[in-house]
Design goal:
By secondary structure, this protein is mainly alpha-helical. It has one domain. 79% of the residues lie in helices and 0% in strands. It is built from eleven helices and no strands.
Length: 245
């Protein structure tokens, strides 16, 4: 009874994965100026149309930077930040849910491998801090991280909270500091990226230290071999003395 659903999920997962890869490499990523012209035709509902486009398109592994740049250009700093971070949350939730729906059963047998289990445990135990730390690091791609968290044992609420918290600084920096007209990267934005990466690395280091400490604390204390031998011999010697009396 379980063979058909599993095969169906495998087909769906492969189709979605292939579609995401094809979309990421073939779909032209619009420039902020092109997005401005496109949104101008939407009229008063520009913010809603932009929110929907941002939320859906970035479920595929398409960079969010151009959308954050366009958010500031089209909507201004305040509304642009609100729309961008809302779309980020929606996109992250969609990617997570999609991966959990069609991907988790397919890789469940591989979760017992030592390396995969170690990553799974650290992400799951790290919770909000683990996800937020990874989101802070600019080099970690947005959509694939959501897929991984959906496949692994990360719970949805910590994942979503970590995604919002970790993505917020970078989103604000791009909306406010990014050169939306040219698509360039100002030095101030590069400095922010460096600071965010450092903060993310420190968060991951803290999780690693906490996990190592918990592992040592959970291990039972052991005696050295000589003392252990003495302790084992004491009951036997006591019984021998009782029998002789």
């Amino acid at each position: 009874m379980d063979v058909v659903p599993r095969r169906l999920k495998m087909v769906i997962a492969l189709v979605l994965l292939a579609g995401a890869v094809v979309a990421a490499f073939t779909l032209p990523v619009p420039s902020p100026a092109e997005l401005r012209n496109w949104a101008a035709g939407a009229g008063p509902v520009t913010a809603l149309v932009f929110l929907a486009a941002y939320s859906v398109l970035t479920v595929a592994p398409i960079p969010r930077t151009v959308f954050n740049l366009a958010a500031g250009l089209l909507l201004g700093d305040v509304l642009g930040i609100v729309v961008a971070i809302t779309a980020t949350a929606v996109s992250g939730a969609l990617g997570f849910g999609l991966a959990r729906l069609v991907g988790r059963d397919l890789v469940s047998r591989h979760l017992e491998r030592k390396v995969v289990r170690a990553v799974d445990e650290r992400l799951a135990d790290g919770g909000v801090l683990a996800v937020a730390s990874l989101r802070l690091i600019p080099l970690v791609p947005f959509a694939p991280l959501g897929y991984c968290c959906g496949i692994l044992s990360v719970r949805f609420r910590p994942y979503l909270a970590g995604t919002v918290l970790g993505s917020l600084p970078g989103t604000v920096a791009v909306v406010v500091l990014g050169d939306a007209l040219t698509g360039g990267t100002p030095p101030a934005l590069l400095a922010c990226y460096g600071a965010f990466a450092l903060a993310g690395a420190l968060g991951l280091a803290r999780i690693a230290r906490g996990t190592a400490y918990a592992g040592r604390a959970g291990q039972p204390a052991t005696l050295d071999p000589v003392r252990e031998e003495i302790v084992r011999a004491e009951p036997t010697q006591h019984l021998r003395r009782v029998s002789e009396e």
